[in-house]
Amino acid sequence: MIRFLQCNFRCSWLLVIILWFSQMCHAQSFYAVLVADTRDASLGASCEKDLEEMSGTLRNISKKIKYDYQELICSQDKFGRGGIQEAISKIQCKPEDIIFFYYTGHGINTPAEKSNFPILYLKDETLELETVHRLLKEKKPRFCLTLGDCCNNLFAGRRSMRAATPVLKGIGVTQDTKILHTLFVEAHGDLLISSAKKGERATAHPNDGSFYSNTWMQAVAYAEKHNSHVSWETLLADAENRLQESLKSLPDSLKHHSQWVRSFPETALPCPGTSFAEINRFLNVLADEKLGFNERNKLRTLGQKGFFGPTAQVSIYMSDPEKPVETQPIDHFLKRIVNTAPLIDEFNFVERLSNLGQGCTYDLVTLQEIRKTK
Hints:
Rossmann fold; 4-stranded mixed β-sheet; globular; 374 residues; 6-stranded mixed β-sheet; Nuclear Transport Factor 2, Chain: A
């Protein structure tokens, strides 16, 4: 009898171990290939910061969606075509896996180049971002995202360096993983992004990192924490809005604009015209003192009818969305923005704490208002 019980006990433990190893063998993987020009004399410190921030962000995303994080870093001696090809060759992709490729460094383009996406400037050699994306897609992951934060201009120039600190960085600590699941698990296909369109230079700061990388991480963090609905299109539009806000003090000749192409159908939003990206854009345009007063006043009237109900209220907070500092009627609030634009730095729309009424207009809007530092 004792031998029989011992046998049953051993068999049960053996079954548990087999099941555990089976789950480990079939765990979904999140492959992150991170390429950073950390030795460059002008850009190295910025790329080092980008590498640190993006690594932490992707690690947290994979943890929240319960994927096994597999990181392959190409920097220092590994920064080059050979290092990238070696990293890609190590990816043993299963059909449900995710691949994320990130590049921060110098980039170029040429008039003869057919692609609108940049060529990675790897010191004594180059590699097209679209070529990298194609090689990764050949691994046949469920979702493949390629992001290049670099110049895309027609000569090998230096990235613009700016002094500014982004409002948000990284992924916040929340229990709700719905947004991340929508973006990274439910998306089947591929997405290619660059921080600058063809002919444009990108921007960076030696201490805070690259501006588009920061605004991309800000957009993901804010959507994950404050939104109920999201799609890649609206999230990338929000990242672009944030990028333009951070660059608005630069002359037009130094500004750049992100671009992207995707191969998967977009997630249907309840009211696409009133997405958080569109409302954020509208509010921040109203607060842009570079535009004339009369122009902003006309936009105020049009936006009020398009986004908000006639009796809508605005709940305003500074740091904690659960503790608003003031509630105002929408008409009073929008007029105040137009008149006090020089005092306002940025607005962030909190979809989770806002109420959508009839006809895709909001009856209650919760906003973060960020004032300019004196």
